[in-house]
Amino acid sequence: MWIRLRAWLTGLFPQYRQDVLLLVIDLIGTFVFAVEGALAGINAGLDVFGLMVLAFVTALGGGTIRDLLIGAVPPNSIRDWRYGATAFAGGGAVFCFHGLIQDVPAHLLITLDAAGLALFAVAGADKALEFGITPLLAVMMGVVTGAGGGTVRDVLLAKVPAVLNSDVYAAAALVGAVVMLGALRVKMPRGLAMSLGAAACFVVRMLAVWQHWNLPKVMR
Amino acid sequence: MWIRLRAWLTGLFPQYRQDVLLLVIDLIGTFVFAVEGALAGINAGLDVFGLMVLAFVTALGGGTIRDLLIGAVPPNSIRDWRYGATAFAGGGAVFCFHGLIQDVPAHLLITLDAAGLALFAVAGADKALEFGITPLLAVMMGVVTGAGGGTVRDVLLAKVPAVLNSDVYAAAALVGAVVMLGALRVKMPRGLAMSLGAAACFVVRMLAVWQHWNLPKVMR
Amino acid sequence: MWIRLRAWLTGLFPQYRQDVLLLVIDLIGTFVFAVEGALAGINAGLDVFGLMVLAFVTALGGGTIRDLLIGAVPPNSIRDWRYGATAFAGGGAVFCFHGLIQDVPAHLLITLDAAGLALFAVAGADKALEFGITPLLAVMMGVVTGAGGGTVRDVLLAKVPAVLNSDVYAAAALVGAVVMLGALRVKMPRGLAMSLGAAACFVVRMLAVWQHWNLPKVMR
């Protein structure tokens, strides 16, 4: 069944078109994360340089940490100028059109962020597998890719990273990566497994925002 | 003399048994550090995800930084699932049996922690030497292995790392690594040098706790 | 024209003398940064170990991050004991002669720091180019080399890094790296391009301190 599906999908999306599609989605995710990082920089009263740093770090920090850990050196963010340029474009857009971006409805930003998280988590786990990382840790690399950038951003702002004690964010990335690995385990084609994982992450994240889910805590 | 001692020890502990012994001790150290990290997470009011992150980072952060710096990529913590699994088991144990762990007497935890520190410091310096790092910096890698995890944990909790201004902790790791390197310099067999170094670190740490030693500060 | 200039400079400074000169300048920069790091440690009330850590991290953190990112592993700071020894000497000097160092006039420290920043920025961008990093990101690596150590120091002190929201510091490093890359683009010899870049960074930094320049911020 997967083979027939793969044949159909391959007809629809030949390899080069898939690659372009993945790159475009990846750059969109990078842009959205950069915008969020830059907004956090403005809220912390940083200057334009600090804003650019937060844009870069939020957008590309997770993937960079993943690449360092799995041994993909230099990391993508340093090897390919398009990622850095996109992150700086996001930061620059916030700096120049700050008023307009404040008018973007919050739920649109949250939705785009969830989409970016889903893509990063799945792409991160996939890349870790490619580098021969064992599944348990490949899942972790997916989470790091999705949530690592925001973590570094919060560390730079001298705050406890929001992912450590707020609503279901990194956990959604975890679900997405686990679903993808499960799908690969039952021999689904890679593209379908990644799509399923991303969809799972996106749905969990949106449900969590909508229903105000929180992870359990130990009572002190 | 060392040669005769080595022959005797080799009879007692053949290579494969030594390796198993080292792995078991290493995993016990990982578990203890993970428990401490998770307890710090609970005290900071983190949710179960944050608790797991702190468990992993506290237990394996030091070794991971060492491996990145000496070029042992991917780091042990990412290459070998047993370390990650042990760290998550430590975090999970704290989450599930929090009440019980609070009943563990503090001095038992401190003793176990000192044992973990001793082992990590010595193993870290040894691994750095193996990768051709010069002795001065191999000692530093021992300290990073022992105290790095707690440092990253404190950074994530937005606190000044305790090792930078509290009692003799990293300094004990330093003593252990220096003793080990000195023992190797006088041609002691590796296992004996490591044992001596670990014992020195453990004794210094326990004496420091018992006698409330503190490192000197410059008066402002 | 560059060729004639290069011939003249090569007569004046043969290669081996250039290398020694570069190393000496590099070690002086390392020492100055280490002194600043150690002073920050004293101001934060750290003990002698914390002071040494801050000295090392401030002096060598930026170059270490750059080396990890561009794939120069193990980083220079771990491979060559002279850097670590110089950093620890800087920290030790602060610990032993704290009173004397407080008598060093502030503008001398600022001038030396600007010189160190200029050198680190230019050397960092140059090394990134050597490792095949694209110019946009080589510039960024120059900034990381110059300003990264101070950033890690501030993170360890649980403060928002000063470079993110204070006066023109990292921006001066950026200018220096850009000038150097521009000079290389018009085929200037490497030594001249590096000197020009370093001079540009130094001048911008000193002007910024003298004129109290600040980067623009977005008004909230």
Automatic annotation (TrEMBL), chains A, B, C:
Highest taxon above the source species: Bacteria
Main location: membrane
Keywords, alphabetical: Cell membrane, Membrane, Transmembrane, Transmembrane helix
Residue ranges of every copy of the Glycine transporter domain listed in the record: 24-98, 111-182
Topological category with respect to the lipid bilayer: Multi-pass membrane protein
Family: Belongs to the UPF0126 family.
Name this protein carries in UniProt: Membrane protein
Organism this protein belongs to: Edaphobacter acidisoli
